[in-house]
């Protein structure tokens, strides 16, 4: 079959996630056929540097035979069995032990799921159950953040704060509230951002970070502290726009949660497994979460697997006081997925890839990335570890474009055409490359990003 055949079948039968099918146009989907290292190859013979590691997940890079071998071996040995009703199997048990060894010291248990969305569904049920067991059944409200993404199941959408998602397929899960995000460039420095919060002029980033934590406290007081079960957030907000909070933010949030005895859920689906240069983003920010949803980099995306890392406080209550938790998925701890995840973690560890992000390749990316701020289209170039964003601005004013101009989408398409995957979130361009990316490949990424910015500028001038 040729590209056109795939495209015709695709158009006829395949409803893609997050795709406006009517707007697909004559061109059709780009058909990706194979990949190795940090490159994907399409059916037209183009080799494209994957600056997004798929969907923020292929941490180990593509084409690792060790993971193929782990899957093959496990599929022969035991392709499937569950872990319900007092059964277990070696791959899931080993993976549980490995995860708890890599996690912060107070985390000693894991509940497996098939994805990050299922992990966040599990979180919602677990925190409400925890407080019910503690004799505080009214503690049911969970506070998330506007513009956050926590998955596409009903609970994931409800915990997340994406307005276009909330507008479709409702009603949402009750008793979930949202507070502003610590998005300095979009909402602190320069006017109204994607969460629709007003401008906060005349502050520095650190004051803004504290203001965002104060908004959380105000929301807790509004709902009544006796009614609030948990706060959920990513260390660095990924799909919202690679939003790196001001340094003041997390310490201030921690203090608020401690004051009102509210559980902290840190969504590690993107930041976990090395993205910020630590095994978990929580470690970078000195957080001790009660629950940590994980997925993506856990298996480097080779097979679907997720989970919730459970801190001692919650785990002890669930185990000692809870009895049976009526919750689980057919594929919780799937043996083949678990075996691949285990091998993936072993390789990340043996090759020192997490430390390399913190000590070598992350700082290298930061220095090259920051230089893009000199480009007239770029208002800010920020990065931490191997996650980064460019804020596109109108060169005439230095301020953000009106949302309707679609400059980010234009830049994304020009990027792809030029051989680089960058994602656009509004007019914010995002990168999150595989952790194995080399210095030369980072240089190539920067050159291609600059070329796409130039091409975007030229198109705007037409
Ligand atoms: N949480 C975060 C922070 C995510 O970025 C995602 C997916 O992008 C999810 C949860 C949902 O994970 P999944 O797509 O595996 O359901």
Automatic annotation (TrEMBL):
InterPro entries: Aminotrans_3, Aminotrans_3_PPA_site, PyrdxlP-dep_Trfase, PyrdxlP-dep_Trfase_major, PyrdxlP-dep_Trfase_small. Keywords: Aminotransferase, Pyridoxal phosphate, Transferase. The keyword Transferase applies. GO terms for molecular function: transaminase activity. Gene3D superfamilies: Aspartate Aminotransferase, domain 1, Type I PLP-dependent aspartate aminotransferase-like (Major domain). It comes from the Bacteria. Its cofactor is pyridoxal 5'-phosphate. Belongs to the class-III pyridoxal-phosphate-dependent aminotransferase family. This is Aspartate aminotransferase family protein.
């Amino acid at each position: 079959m040729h590209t056109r055949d795939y495209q015709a079948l695709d158009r006829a039968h395949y409803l893609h996630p997050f795709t406006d099918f009517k707007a697909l146009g004559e061109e059709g989907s780009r058909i990706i056929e194979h990949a190795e290292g940090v490159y994907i190859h399409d059916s037209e013979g183009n080799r494209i540097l994957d600056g997004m590691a798929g969907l923020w997940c292929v941490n180990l890079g593509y084409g690792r035979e060790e993971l193929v071998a782990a899957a093959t071996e496990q599929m022969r040995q035991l392709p499937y069995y569950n872990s319900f009703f007092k059964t277990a199997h070696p791959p899931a048990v080993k993976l549980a032990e490995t995860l708890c060894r890599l996690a912060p010291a107070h985390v000693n248990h894991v509940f497996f799921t098939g994805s990050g969305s299922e992990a966040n569904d599990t979180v919602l049920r677990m925190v409400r159950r925890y407080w019910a067991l503690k004799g505080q059944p009214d503690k049911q409200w969970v506070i998330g953040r506007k513009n956050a993404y926590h998955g596409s199941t009903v609970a994931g959408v409800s915990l997340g704060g994406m307005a276009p998602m909330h507008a479709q397929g409702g009603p949402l899960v009750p008793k979930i509230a949202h507070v502003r995000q610590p998005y300095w460039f979009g909402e602190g420095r320069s006017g109204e951002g994607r969460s629709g919060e007003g401008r906060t002029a005349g502050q520095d980033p650190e004051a803004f970070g504290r203001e965002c934590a104060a908004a959380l406290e105000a929301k807790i007081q509004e709902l009544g502290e006796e009614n609030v079960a948990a706060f959920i957030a990513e260390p660095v907000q990924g799909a919202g726009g690679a939003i790196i909070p001001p340094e003041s933010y997390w310490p201030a949030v921690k203090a608020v949660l401690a004051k009102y005895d509210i559980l902290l859920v840190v969504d590690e689906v993107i930041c976990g497994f090395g993205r910020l240069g630590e095994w978990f983003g929580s470690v970078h920010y000195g957080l001790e979460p009660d629950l940590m949803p994980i997925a993506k980099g856990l298996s480097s995306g080779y097979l679907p697997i997720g989970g919730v890392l459970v801190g001692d406080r919650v785990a002890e209550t669930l185990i000692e006081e809870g009895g049976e938790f009526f919750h689980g998925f057919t594929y919780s701890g799937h043996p083949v997925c678990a075996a691949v995840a285990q091998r993936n973690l072993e390789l990340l560890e043996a090759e020192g890839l997490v430390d390399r992000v913190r000590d070598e390749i992350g700082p290298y990316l930061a220095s090259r990335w920051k230089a893009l701020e000199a480009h007239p289209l770029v208002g800010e170039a920020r990065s931490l570890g191997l996650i980064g964003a460019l804020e596109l601005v109108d060169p005439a004013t230095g301020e953000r474009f009106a949302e309707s101009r679609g400059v980010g989408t234009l830049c994304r398409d020009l990027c792809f055409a030029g051989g680089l995957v960058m994602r656009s979130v509004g007019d914010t361009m995002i990168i999150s490359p595989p952790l194995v990316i080399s210095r030369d490949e980072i240089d190539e990424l920067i050159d291609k990003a600059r070329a796409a910015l130039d091409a975007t500028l030229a198109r705007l001038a037409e």
